[in-house]
Amino acid sequence: MTTGRWPDRAAAEALLDGGHGGTPLGRVLTAARGPAGPHEFVGEPEATAAFRASDRTTGPVRARRTLSRLLAIKVAIAGALLTGSGLAVASATGTLPIPDREEPRPAPAVPARPPAPAGEHTTRTPGPPPSASPSRKPKGPNEHARSPHPRRNTEQPTPGRKSPNPANTPNGQRQ
Amino acid sequence: MKLDLSEPAVSAGPADLSDAVIAAQAGDEAAFRELFRAVQPALLRYLRGLIGDDAEDVASETWLQVCRDLPRFSGDYANFRAWAVTIARHRALDHARKLRRRPSVPVPVEALMDLASGADTAHEAADAVATGAAVALIATLPAQQAEAVLLRVVMGLDAETVGRILGKRPGAVRTAAYRGLRRLSALMPEESE
């Protein structure tokens, strides 16, 4: 800068790569990258201890890992058993809606049914109102005989037969 | 990148320790020691140039983090060096932030003059003094120039790698190092070539 224009860019790159060792600046840079002295390995015991402590793939830590994996498996099995038995209990006691086959399929005909004004209709279905017709419609008359709600069959025996199309069902029921 | 093999470049040692990296990741303590011994001297010099006397503390923090994150590290020895430097740099910047200033690195002027003039530094103690003086001299540069020179000379990293570490283009790294060397050259007692 103040003294001459050496090094230029090329010479600077050479210096950075270890060249021009005979110049004052070259000697400084050579010294900067010079051989490591014993004092420069300071911290090795601490670093090694940290390595030992944090390493998760060797010795006792590996055993611990295996243990925790076993534990996780056990917990998973226990969880599965509990879930399974919970289901069984629920099924047995009937608290789950699964046994009633008519329950889960209300969707298609639901909108039409609740507004139905017929008195007979509302008293007829104190339980789950929308469930009866959708399951009844697509099925044949034999299905009615097997229905868990025989009342529906007797009071309103024919809507399914008359109108397989869900859209017509409410009208048929009201008639 | 040109490499003049006639020059001793022990600390920048390009010996490929990629196998040691893999072994250390698998838990091999001897391999970890090998990596430590290969990286720590240069890392300490770099940190000394950045933050002076607290270099050892920051290097220690750096190795803690290296140990902690080593299982998740992926790469060869060159990547490992760059990774360790990146960690060290972040730790050093945190440290400097706490101090709210860039720590000054005292320059041993006499040693520097001996060094520049080519006085005999054939034995170990003189080597150590010369090395310390050289790093201290580089540390007097403006921060960006100092860091570029330290990473390229002391850590032996190329401009591309230094650029990745500093978040700069390689060209910007070359320019910073070049300006740093020009400035250093102006401090030298004499010019040659």
UniProtKB/TrEMBL annotation, chain A:
Pro residues bias spans: 106-117
Region described as Disordered: 94-175
Organism superkingdom: Bacteria
Keyword vocabulary terms for this entry: Membrane, Transmembrane, Transmembrane helix
Bias (Polar residues) ranges: 165-175
Transmembrane keyword on record: yes
Membrane-spanning parts: 71-92
Protein name: Uncharacterized protein
Protein's organism: Asanoa iriomotensis
TrEMBL record, chain B:
Ranges of residues in domain RNA polymerase sigma factor 70 region 4 type: 136-184
Domain RNA polymerase sigma-70 region, first and last residues per copy: 35-102
Protein keywords: Sigma factor, Transcription, Transcription regulation
InterPro entries: RNA_pol_sigma-70-like, RNA_pol_sigma-70_dom, RNA_pol_sigma70_r2, RNA_pol_sigma70_r4_t2, RNA_pol_sigma_r2, RNA_pol_sigma_r3/r4-like, WH-like_DNA-bd_sf
UniProt-listed Pfam families: Sigma70_r2, Sigma70_r4_2
The family this protein is said to belong to: Belongs to the sigma-70 factor family. ECF subfamily.
Protein name per its UniProtKB record: RNA polymerase sigma24 factor
